[in-house]
From TrEMBL:
<keyword id="KW-1133">Transmembrane helix</keyword>
<dbReference type="InterPro" id="IPR029052">
    <property type="entry name" value="Metallo-depent_PP-like"/>
</dbReference>
<keyword id="KW-0732">Signal</keyword>
<dbReference type="Pfam" id="PF00149">
    <property type="entry name" value="Metallophos"/>
</dbReference>
<keyword id="KW-0378">Hydrolase</keyword>
<feature type="domain" description="Calcineurin-like phosphoesterase">
    <location>
        <begin position="46"/>
        <end position="255"/>
    </location>
</feature>
<keyword id="KW-0472">Membrane</keyword>
<comment type="similarity">
    <text>Belongs to the metallophosphoesterase superfamily. Purple acid phosphatase family.</text>
</comment>
<feature type="transmembrane region" description="Helical">
    <location>
        <begin position="16"/>
        <end position="35"/>
    </location>
</feature>
<keyword id="KW-0812">Transmembrane</keyword>
<dbReference type="InterPro" id="IPR004843">
    <property type="entry name" value="Calcineurin-like_PHP"/>
</dbReference>
<dbReference type="InterPro" id="IPR051558">
    <property type="entry name" value="Metallophosphoesterase_PAP"/>
</dbReference>
<dbReference type="InterPro" id="IPR024927">
    <property type="entry name" value="Acid_PPase"/>
</dbReference>
<keyword id="KW-0408">Iron</keyword>
<protein>
    <recommendedName>
        <fullName>Purple acid phosphatase</fullName>
        <ecNumber>3.1.3.2</ecNumber>
    </recommendedName>
</protein>
Length: 335
């Protein structure tokens, strides 16, 4: 794995520069850590997005991994994004939990997938030892693993903002049922959430990238099982719209979908079909907004350059389910 370092300094007043297993990131008093990703020689990026996957190969996780490897090779992907719920049912129980190998290392073995996996945490991850997934020890075990609570990936023409959405959901605190959540590093909750919203607002305001993409585990708009997460709709969406974010990408619902906005350009894209899917679990939705819904397993590829972004949704056999492209001037969708 090549360490990547900035070709130019990002315009911010940094207080610290930290080297973390070959990665260079920058911290100031109240900002997310920043990482730099190089573009291809032609100025483009390509990557895959998958969520809700970690089931030791079951529920077609292994079959999906094969297709991801083939598509990844075809597109010469630069990295993979995971939209959370990385290990079922209850995260990892520590850095030496064999689930890490059985659900990750031993599954995603294709040569094209041996790139950095940028992960966010999901609610199932919070039911285990959260610190284990954040530990650099896992990166020693598998160099493609990378996980922090919230951070920014900067790639000149695009900025990716990874957000820790689980602590926003009040029900996990007030009605955890039989589950135990690991809230170390989160409490007091109000301060954690306020800091995260403030830091996101600051990071977005400083971004000069052509494209802005926010990644979180939980749904904001979804025709699937979890529907609208009101805490995120109320607290996060105004910030995304204010700063002209192009896409919010999530998992949580075990499906693939694309929902637009009538009153803004913001689109909500779900890639949560990494293993167990929920057949038939779909709600009604405004057809002006709902562009695509698939209640099976699958993943998404994204190719991005200065002028446009192309999205492709695939099923477990590698078949193309939905394809669309977006430019700053127009949007074209085909299926």
């Amino acid at each position: 794995m090549e360490a990547f370092f900035p070709k130019k300094i990002i315009t911010m007043n940094f207080k610290y520069v930290i080297i973390f297993f070959g990665y260079c990131f920058f911290l100031s008093c109240a900002e997310f850590p920043y990482f730099n990703q190089s573009l291809k020689d032609d100025g483009s990026l390509s990557f895959l997005v998958i969520g809700d996957w970690g089931r030791k190969g079951l529920y077609n996780q292994s079959e999906l991994a094969i297709q991801m490897g083939e598509i990844g090779e075809k597109l010469k992907i630069d990295f993979v994004i995971s939209s959370g719920d990385n290990f079922y049912e209850d995260g990892l129980n520590g850095v030496n939990d064999p689930t890490f190998q059985h659900s990750f290392t031993n599954i995603y073995k294709a040569p094209s997938l041996q790139k950095t996996w940028y992960n966010v945490l999901g609610n199932h991850d919070y039911r285990g030892d959260v610190e284990a997934q954040l530990s650099p020890i896992l990166r020693e075990k598998d160099k493609k693993w990378f996980c922090l609570r919230s951070y920014v990936l900067h790639a000149e023409i695009v900025d990716f903002f990874f957000i820790d959405t689980t602590p926003f959901v009040n029900d996990y605190f007030t009605n955890p049922k039989e589950h135990t959540y690991d809230w170390r590093g989160v409490l007091p909750k109000d301060k954690y959430l306020n800091d995260q919203l403030k830091d996101l607002d600051l990071a977005l305001s400083k971004s000069t990238a052509k494209w802005k993409i926010v990644i979180g585990h939980h749904t904001i708009k979804s025709a699937g099982h979890h529907g609208i997460i009101m805490e995120l709709a109320q607290q996060l969406v105004p910030i995304l719209e204010e700063h002209d974010v192009d896409f919010y990408i999530n998992g949580h619902d075990h499906c693939l979908q694309r929902i637009g906005s009538i009153d803004s350009k913001l689109e909500f894209l779900t890639s949560g079909g990494g293993s167990k899917a929920w057949r038939g679990d779909v709600k009604g939705w405004n057809q002006e907004e709902l562009k695509f819904y698939y209640d099976g397993q699958g993943f998404m590829s994204i190719e991005l350059n200065q002028k446009e972004v192309e999205f492709v949704y695939y099923d477990v056999f590698g078949n193309v389910l939905h394809k669309f492209s977006v430019s700053k001037d127009s949007c074209v969708s085909s299926q």
